Amino acid sequence: MVAYIFTSVKNRCIDYLRRKIIEQKSKEYIREKLRLILQMKFDSLEILDDEMFSENETGHIIEKALQSLSGRCREILIRHKIDGMKQKDIARELNISPKTVENQLTIAYKKTARGIEKVFIR
Length: 122
Description:
This protein is mostly helical and about 120 residues long. About 85% of the residues lie in helices and about 0% in strands. The chain contains 5 helices and no strands. It has helices at about 1-45, 55-65, 70-80, 85-95, 100-120. The radius of gyration is 26 Å and the shape is elongated.
């Protein structure tokens, strides 16, 4: 009976240590992937030169991206990002649900990102 208990405890300890090793390797793998992703994002930001576009050109690019949005979508984005309104306040003021505001903002972000991206990928 003692041998059985000893073997059982030994095997559980070995299983525990194996799980911990796998867990540690997974954490290291994830950390390395995140480090690489952050490094790539940082490197891509360094590529952008502050003087790449004049202030006027930048304003024109943003204005063109905003014009590609539907009227309500543009209005919600401007109220949220430029006027600094919260989504709940926008929803209350426009008599729409907060979920609609959230969906419209998602659409606006995607469309403006695509519009601005086109400028950089000429």
